[in-house]
Amino acid sequence: MSSKIFYFSGTGNSLAVARELSKNLSDKGSIIPLSIYRNEETAQIDTDVLGLVFPVHFMNIPDIVKCFIKKLTFKSNPYIFAIATCNGTSGASLIELNKCLDRKGKVLSSGFVIYMPGNALVTPDDIEIERLKNYKPKVTEISTTINNRSTNKIDEKDSLKTYILSAICKSLGKRLYLTPKNVSYTSQCVGCGICKKVCHLNNIEMINKRPHWGNECSTCLACFHWCPKKAVKGGKMLNKRGRYHHPQISIEDMELKIKLESATWRKS
Ligand SMILES: Cc1cc2nc3c(=O)[nH]c(=O)nc-3n(C[C@H](O)[C@H](O)[C@H](O)COP(=O)(O)O)c2cc1C
Ligand code: SF4
Ligand code: SF4
């Protein structure tokens, strides 16, 4: 048996979940950042199990995850599972993901939502602590379903209202949080380049030791949250909140994951 878990993560929540899950899978599974396929035409799957772990963005799956699914080609007929991490409102993320898979002639065997601390809207401190304590037992439960190759019923509503809300949330939300137009750095910037290192879309270029943002942004907010000088600014809502990242994920994890796993993937 072989499993591959593809993840996308801005502040480490989804990466922490993917790591915890791989420990609990019968074959441990390899964890791969799906962003390494950004410039590839296809992503070939030849394993028995295919997993997708990602954050909910605007009650939906991030565009980069949709693009990744479009690129999938299958040499095997894998059991497919997905875990969406979010701050309490998954919208129709898993239903949408299942629709993307359906276009590839595949079906989501099991789908799960895990509540984690929010990196856009703020989660109250007591709830944040509780979620950081509770996600591991939840992942253990999920791994039993996956190891048994069981299917589950996706607990989301496929209603027009959800899609309209998601679209409104996306068009307003991007402006309130971060867009290529409103993102900038303040005089606190020391030119360390960490914002560039954690950007899985390679959307930041350092010119004369200062960051310059391109248009390939996924609004993951990694550059905002990981900047050690709190020098990255965006829209009104974003600038009001504090920085967050998962306590067990480091800058090196965010950065190294891309390099090491990219190398592993290229060898296979
Ligand atoms: C642009 C953006 C939009 C988000 N939209 C939602 C949402 O609609 N519902 C929700 O519950 N959480 C939402 N979140 C919160 C994240 O889904 C949540 O914090 C997630 O665990 C972050 O995972 P990561 O650290 O792996 O990126 C949003 C976060 C971002 C950055
Ligand atoms: S991480 Fe912050 S301090 Fe470092 S280069 Fe980027 S904006 Fe400047
Ligand atoms: S520019 Fe910032 S918000 Fe946009 S993809 Fe890169 S790290 Fe994420």
UniProtKB/TrEMBL annotation:
Q: Which InterPro entries match?
A: 4Fe4S_Fe-S-bd (IPR017896), 4Fe4S_Fe_S_CS (IPR017900), EFR1-like (IPR047964), Flavoprotein-like_sf (IPR029039)
Molecular functions per Gene Ontology: iron-sulfur cluster binding; metal ion binding
Per UniProt, which keywords does this protein have?
Answer: Iron, Iron-sulfur, Metal-binding
Give the 4Fe-4S ferredoxin-type domain ranges: 179-209
The answer to whether keyword Iron-sulfur applies is yes
Gene3D superfamilies in alphabetical order? 3.30.70.20, 3.40.50.360
Q: Does the keyword Iron-sulfur apply?
A: yes
NCBIfam families from the UniProt entry: ferrodoxin_EFR1 (NF038196)
- According to UniProt, the name of this protein is Putative iron-sulfur protein
